[in-house]
Every structure is written in C-alpha cells, then in structure tokens.
Design goal:
Layout (H helix, E strand, L loop, with lengths): L10 E2 L12 H8 L2 E5 L5 E5 L2 H9 L4 E2 L6 H4 L19 H12 L4 H25 L3 E2 H6 L1 H11 L6 H11 L6 H24 L5 H7 L8 H15 L1 H16 L1 H9 L4 H12 L6 E5 L3 E3 L2 E3 L4 E4 L1 H4 L33 H18 L4 E2 L21 E3 L5
Parallel strand pairs: 1-2, 3-9
Antiparallel strand pairs: 2-3, 4-6, 5-11, 6-9, 7-8, 10-11
Helix pairs in contact: 5-16, 7-8, 7-11, 8-9, 9-11, 12-13, 12-16, 13-16
This protein binds protoporphyrin IX containing FE.
Keywords: Heme, Iron, Metal-binding, Monooxygenase, Oxidoreductase
GO molecular function: heme binding; iron ion binding; monooxygenase activity; oxidoreductase activity, acting on paired donors, with incorporation or reduction of molecular oxygen
Family: Belongs to the cytochrome P450 family.
Length: about 400
Amino acid sequence: MTTTDATCPVRELPRDRCPFDPDPAYVRLRVEEPVTRVNTPAGLDVWLVSRYEDARTVLLDGESFSNIDSSSSHLIGQVEQLQQPPPPGILLRLDGEAHSSLRLRLAREFSPKAMARLEPYVQALVEEHLQRLIAAGTPFDLYRDFALTIPSLVIGELLGVPVQDRDVFASTTSRMVDISLTAQEREAASQEMNGFLVQLVQAKFADPADDLLSRLITDPRKHPVTFEELVGLSLLLLTAGHDTTANMIALGTLRLLQEPALAERVRDDCEVLQTGIDELVRYLTIVHYGVLRLAVRDVQVGDVMVPAGDYVAVSLESANRDEALTLDPDRLDLERTSAHVGFGYGVHQCLGQHLARLELRLALPALLRQLPGLRTVEALPDIPFKNDMIVYGVKKLNVTWDGAR
Ligand code: HEM
C-alpha cells in the first residue's frame, strides 16, 4: 500500500489551518512542489496535489483514477478499511458504468428544478426553527441547535421519512456526528440510523409514495435499484449532505461576523448571495484535507509520473486558494464569480450542490435578519475548530443577540 521512493522526501500532510485559511505550507508547495510525497495522519504515503489545474486534471480523469479503494475519510481515518469492498449504493466508492447509471437516476432529484420545488419547505423550516430559538430567548449553540437540524430534516423530507419520525431522525443524525459523545456512542447512533433506514426502505418497497426512494423503486428502467443499494444510498445522502451543510452554515456565519460590512451585505441584499454562496464554499473549503484517488495506471500529474497503485490526495483547500485560479484568492469577495473545487470536480462532483446552495442562501440571511446584533459569546481564539476531522468547521458556536436574555 505504501510506495515511498527512498529518493523522495516524505513529509506530513499540511494541517495547520488557522482558522479560515489553509496551512501556509501550501503557498510554497504550489510554487515549488505542486505534486509531492506526503504521509497522511492515517499512515498512508500519497502524492499531494496542491495546484488548481492539477486538481481538476486528476478529478476529471476517471479512467486513470479510481474511487473504489479510496475516500476522503481515509486521509485521516482508518486505512485498514481501504481494501474492504464498499457497501452497495455508495456512489463515492463506485467507478465507471456502475457509478454513472446510479448517478443518472439521482440527478433529477437534485436538479435546480427539483430544488426550486423544495424551496418553500426549506424556507418554512428555517423560519420555524429560528422562531423557536427566539421564543426560548437565551444564547444557543448555533452549530448544534440550528445548523445541524436544518439539513437533516431536509434530507428526511427528500427521503420521505414519515413526519412523526422526523424528530428522532434529526436527533439520531446529530448524534452520529456529535464529537462531545464517545466513539462508541456515535457508532451506536450510526447503527440505529442504519436500522431506521432499513425499515424506511422496506416501507417504501411495500407502499411507494411521492419521494426520492419511492421514485427510484418504481423507476421502470431495466436494472432496478436493489434494496441494499437504496439503504447505502440513503446513508450516503445523510453522511454527505448533513454535516457538510451544517458546518458551512455555522462556519459561514462565524466568518461573516468577523467582517460586519459583509454580514450587513448578506442581511440586506439578497442578490449578493447569487455569487456569495459559491465564494463562501471556495473560501472556506470545508472538505479541507481534500479527496483521495487511486491511480490504476501510470499517469502524468504536473511534472510527476504517478505509478499505478499509488494514491493521490487532491488538496481542495489549496487548489481553491491558488493564485492562478483567481486574483487575491485569500480575500473573501462575495461578488467574485470564480470557478472552484469546493464541491469537488468531475464525475464525482457534489450531487447535492444545488441543495447546499439553497439551504445556505436561505439560512445565512435569515439568521442575520431575525437575530439583530447576532454575535458570538466566546472570542474567536476561544472557539473550538475541527482541525482533526474530515469536514472542517466549528465544534460549537455559542451565540447571542440583542433580544436575548
Ligand atoms: C456545502 C455543503 C457541501 C459540500 C462542501 C460538499 C462537498 C462535496 C465534495 C467535495 C464532494 C466530492 C467528493 C469526491 O470527489 O471524492 C461531494 C460529493 C457528494 N456530495 Fe456533497 N457537499 C455538500 C453538500 C451535499 C449535500 C446537501 C448532499 C445531498 C444531500 C451531498 C451529496 C453528495 C454526494 C451523494 C456526493 C457523491 C457524488 C458522487 O460520487 O457521484 N453533498 N460533496
């Protein structure tokens, strides 16, 4: 699995993010060693790609790179899992035809048109949760009490989780990623969720309704989606779409609050978020360590010939701050219309990106409008950040506002 060439220096994966900017080591790497050998915290030697153009080249090349034996969690997670076959339905761990046929069936469920139909639901959800917090009238943890709840309930709506089960669904998804719990408690929540999803998919097979799972079941195509694929897919949508969006809501709010002029702009000018959401996704790049691919044939990346069998880690946070991508990339400029790889790129580019944009576009201004004087309880140096996790964000974000007790 490790293929370190003795002539190549192996260093550590840069991880000193502070708190909105990537590790400064990337500035030098992009110039001097844009494709270089590093050792990941999980003990894997990989080729680290730090330039935007090289990142796009790798992510676009589904012939030379495979996802089956790699996922971003392996960058800091357990490498022993690498050679285990992925469970069915996990799009991120599929290649070629198996990936494209499943992705094609899902595409229209996440299209801009489908998201426009969902907008009134998300709007009402954001409103209802903010009203609850305002009525309680006390400082709250914006990450736990608001940001985590909205995306999980939206996924519940998409999957067709019965209304009476939504609160349990939301609290179980939150426990799955709650780092104040022990690893065993989080694992127990994942097991509970798995059992919940098995029952949900069984119910959809027995009695299809008007939701994503039912439409996949009744889709008249030649190769129906199997029971196991639907359970895996539901779990993937939850894991890929829940904590990512939650972290973007909380970290995005925190970043806006650092520059009151930007926060006011988002509060007062709906138009600015047409470009502003993608700029926040670029600037914050919460999938900060990036994504992993396995070279399945010898392939040129920049100046390096990567041999078949080697892993390549594409640093999304570095690519998005590449001076060759956009002028002054370290500045958050909500009117910038730059491309970026914050949602990935190529065939595995984020399936839920229009949904994430919708949730952020509704949640961020609503927080700033309805909680006048919104501010953090702790000063920035005292806010805990998730440097040690695949998805970057705040561990908690206590906030208060002018009307709070
Ligand atoms: C701001 C929030 C989000 C960010 C930053 C984000 C980021 C990403 C990134 C970087 C990838 C590519 C991974 C790779 O190439 O290995 C990805 C893939 C994916 N995302 Fe998202 N995501 C977000 C929200 C969502 C939401 C809301 C959903 C759905 C509910 C979702 C579902 C997926 C799925 C299913 C994939 C795999 C696609 C495939 O393999 O074809 N994501 N996301």
